[in-house]
Predict the 3D structure of the following.
Amino acid sequence: MAPNDITEMLLNWKNGDSAAFERLYPLVEHELRRIASIRVRRERQNHTLQTTALINEAFLKLAKGNVDWQGRAHFYAVCARVMRRILINYARDSKAARRGGGAEHINIDEAAIVSTERGQELLDLDEALVRLAKRSKIKADVVELRYFGGMTIEETAEALDISPSSVSLHWRLARAWLQRELLNGRKNGA
């Protein structure tokens, strides 16, 4: 499927053609599966969640939203952001449930997204990423698209409308900053 066809469907959907959204899913499912599988592979090795569950939840959230789609690259960037939020929310819910904090029931497939150890790491990364966004939104966006979205340097450059060399620089600097933040957090018992 040509990128222009996906962009056209996104624009039709934005302009009120609800059938365009239904036609879009089969065309983008492969790429969404790739993005989701990258995220799921980074979780604990014996989790039971399949990438389909993450894709479906992300797509349902997108269907409810009213996004001003800028094109195919923007769509995948938003998908990566939605998947990140889903994983972060499940990690928080899992942590609250372990504390007995009256968390709502989560089915076994949803709870399997994040293990206890990986869930805390994901929460720590999310907090550090929020701090990074306050310092440099572009660096935080690059991390979100590369780490959570599994995008290449070139795909990230297209999504953010910057050069690949700028993406590479932001990626290197952001990773170094995040590693330092996460290491300091562990040393300080956070």
